[in-house]
Each structure stands twice: as structure tokens, then as C-alpha cells.
């Protein structure tokens, strides 16, 4: 079980830090109506993708050499679609290029319909010790509205089996689905609590541009709950999960002690990570500089040149580093060092005036020199961060 999360750091000089690795597996059997992630639904390129992935990983050898890796996350797409031996082969390659930390977290995102038969045992044998289940709901009507392929019965059965077999399991739940009632949402939360999944991610449905959901709403075919209803659903999740012993450690994430996501927490705390695969992002330290890099969101371009498919790479300015630190630190329950905020406030912002207003709104608290968002404040995280960095 991973240790409790450390306090968030501030702008730092270069030093050796454990790495996290992210592998974007871009294959899905179908695109859900609300999804805007990069993915492809043609599955005949899976083996070619893993050959390209090996090329990119070997090319990253200088960045991996003599480094300790504390977490690996297979995301997508749907990593559970691919043959397990391909996942195991990549893990063997990565282990030959770097050092896996004792108790390393190796997580894989999975859909319930892919985990029948011996699939879970095969994943465990390959080294996966954390499953992230794309359940989204335990209610059949909601699953149908979202275009999910698994049934409510499958979701319950697979969650129960996963919790019994893996060191750690996370489930995703979505609220604000077209036609959803508060009662349906409370039913989802009650099911999750009864199943005792040690990590629960709660997402309010976001209507993204150019998705099938957006087109259906524009044509008047479906309607989604308004912001006020979604906010009340989010508040209900906070109340129920907190009462169930879950720590609300990030805007959308709740965990029993020791079950937070190491990879996600590393991203929010601005720790270094390397991304592999099309559309994957990396964040690395180069002496006193911080660099962000992203691969192109094109499978064919990636297959053609896996070690050279970067869409952009940039060195962050001091101001960009400050802005990132504020936005990301406020997403997690440890918050932001107030002295750091004062020190880097070069825009003439009247911090006491702003923070007094947020305290009066019950959006933030300041304790032991750190500014933290309240459960209510998490709803306005980006707004609060924006006001803390702008005059």
C-alpha cells in the first residue's frame, strides 16, 4: 500500500526525484458519447503500436538510466483491450532501463467487459497491482445513456472481484448524466460504498465540444442536469464518502488511507514524469529548467516515427511555473504555502483582500501557513486560483 501523500513542494531547484511513467494506449472498441480523449477504434494496429512503444522507450534510455520509478500508469483509450503479454513485455523492457522502486504502483485502466475469465489473474501475473475501473455507474439506465458496453450487473460483479484480488482498486463514477435524478446518483454512491472500493473518482459530466453528446444536446434530443443540480450531486458525494472514511484528497478523488493514486498525485504536485504513446505528455527537470513535452495525437504519425513524434516542447518561464504551482496545488487537500504565494506575487494583487473574501464565502481556510480549499471551495478551484494570480 502506498504511503500517505507528502506535502506539496514549491518551485524547486534541480534534484534527483523518483519518476512516474505514463503509457497512453489509444485503442477503444467504440467512442463513448461524452469522450474527447485521443483514441482510435481500429484494433488491427495494437501489435504495431507496442513495437513502436518499445522504440520510443529505448530512445528515452538517457532519461531513464539510473533513475528510480515509483509509479507506472497505463491509460487510454482502453488498456484492458490489449493482450496482456504485450503489457508484460513493455514492463520488462522498462525494468531493464531503470530501477523500479520497492512497492512500485503499476496501475492499468480497465473496462468491466474486458475482465471476464482469467483476465484479472493474467494482469496480476504481468505486474499490475492497481486496477482503475471505468465503471461510471451501477445503474443500467445511466450506462445506456452514456453508451457504455457493460451492464450494471457486470459492473457490480467485476468491482467485487477486483477488490478481492488487487492490492488497490479505483472506480470512476459520473454524475450529471442526461436525465439523471438525485436518487440515481445516491444509489451509485451507496453501491460504491457497499463494494468498499478503496479509491473513488467522482466526475461531473462535462459536455465537450465536437462530441456526440454535444450534438445530441444541440439537437434537443437529450438534456443534462443544470450546474446547480450537479453541484448538489457533488456535495452529496463529499458528504457520503467522507462519512464512509474516504479522504477527499483532490477535487475529484477520494481514497481510503494509503490508496491515493501515486501517478496522479505526482502530476498535481509537479513531480517529473515521462509519457509514452500518441498524445502523451512529459514533465522533466533539466538542471534549473523545467520542460513540458507532448507527443502528437496521431497514431499513424507515431507508428511512423515513435521517437520523434513530439507535437511541442517548451521550457517553462518563472511566471508559468508559478501559475502551474498555484492551480495544481489548490487541487489537492494539502493546499498552497501562503509565503510562497506572497513571495511570487509580482502583479500587485492585494492578497489579504482576496483571501478575506474567499474565507467569508467558506471557500478557503488558512491554517499553519497553508491556504487550502474547503469542500465547498473545490467547486470553484480554477476560479479561486485565477484570482490568486491576477490583479
Write structural notes for this entry:
The protein has helices at about 45-60, 60-65, 85-95, 120-125, 140-145, 150-165, 180-195, 210-220, 225-245, 260-270, 300-305, 320-330, 340-345, 350-360, 380-390, and strands spanning about 20-25, 70-75, 100-110, 130-135, 170-175, 200-205, 245-250, 255, 275, 280-285, 290-295, 310-315, 335, 365, 370-375. Residues about 1-15 have low confidence and may be disordered. The termini are far apart. It is an alpha/beta fold. The strands form three sheets. It has a nine-stranded mixed beta sheet, with helices on both faces. Strands 10-11-12 form a three-stranded antiparallel beta sheet, with no helix packed on it. A three-stranded antiparallel beta sheet has the order 13-15-14. The chain is built from 15 helices and 15 strands. The protein has two domains: about 20-265, TIM Barrel; about 335-390, no CATH class. Helices cover about 40% and strands about 25% of the residues. The relative contact order is 0.13.
